[in-house]
Amino acid sequence: MATSDAPITIKKYANRRLYDASSGTHTTLEALAAIAKAGKDFVVYDAKGGDITRSVLTQIVFEQENKEGQSLLPINFLRLLIRFYGDSMQMSCRVILRYRSQPSPATRENSVSRSLRCLAARSVRSKTRPA
Question: 18-33 b/e with 16+ CB inside 10 Å = b?
Fold first, then answer.
C-alpha cells in the first residue's frame, strides 16, 4: 500500500491496459485524470520498467482538451509551446515552467503566461537581430 507522500504506481502493459499496483485493479486515463485533479501524484511504467509518466500525462491533457467544452489551452499558447521545442529558448522555458508549476499562491498561475510571452518576445527579438 502506498503512503500518502509516495506516488501511486501504475503499470502499462503491452496490451495498453493500465494497472494500478496499489489497488490491484485495472484503471483508465479518466481515472488517472481524477487522481491528478485530487492532487495525488502517480508514476507510470511500461512493461520494461521505463518511466512513461510524461507521455501518459500528455495523453490525459489531449483527452481533456478533446472533451466538449473542456478546452483549457488556447490555440496560440499551443503554437507558442511548439515553437519552443528545439529552440535556444527551450531550456529557459523548461526552467521557468518547472519553477512556476510548483505549489504556491494563485498569482503564480498568471506569471506562467507572462513568462511565456516574455520568452516568445525574446525569441522573436533574437531572430530579428543581425548576426
Answer: bbbeeeeeebeeeebb
Residue 42, pLDDT > 50, answer: yes
- Give the Cα separation of 120 and 123 in Å (integer): 5
**Rounded to an integer, what distance in angstroms lies between the CA atom of residue 66 and that of residue 42?**
22
Predicted TM-score (pTM) of the model is: 0.66
- Exposure class string for 120-129: b at 16+ Cβ within 10 A, else e: beebeeeeee
**DSSP-derived 3-state class of residue 87:** coil
Q: 97, 91, 90: which is closest to 114 by C-alpha?
A: 97
Cell numbers linked to 107: 498569482
Check whether 31 has a pLDDT greater than 50.
yes
Higher pLDDT, 52 or 86: 52
8 A C-beta contact, residue 2 and residue 22:
yes
